[in-house]
Amino acid sequence: QVQLVESGGGLVQAGGSLRLSCASSGRTFGTYAMGWFRQGLGKEREFVAAISYGGRSTYYAGSVKDRFTISRDNAKNTLFLQMNSLKPEDTAVYSCAADATKRHLDSNNYYDTSYEYWGQGTQVTVSS
What we know:
Layout: E1 2-7, E2 10-13, E3 18-26, E4 33-39, E5 46-51, E6 58-60, E7 68-73, E8 78-83, E9 92-99, E10 117-118, E11 122-127
Parallel strand pairs: 2-11
Antiparallel strand pairs: 1-3, 3-8, 4-5, 4-9, 5-6, 7-8, 9-10, 9-11
């Protein structure tokens, strides 16, 4: 079992930055891949970024590449999402998720069905 709790969301002006955190407990954090997803109001949940168990491999959605950075601190059982140059279209509830079945990333990690455990989400609102 894995428990995930996000924090760091809030209201920011366009062009600003936020850093999201996802605290994990339960199974040893450094043994599985992790991801971030987001869901805007009235929209489908969409992939944002993913990271392998050791942090060496990362995937990004095209819409956030070069603006967002996913990272993890396995010693502190925490996943991060650094978001820079934020845009109004980044407004959404951001959730972290654990793919506890594997350490390395593959093409399935772009899809929410690959993840077994989810946090409750944190709201990010970007004003124009």
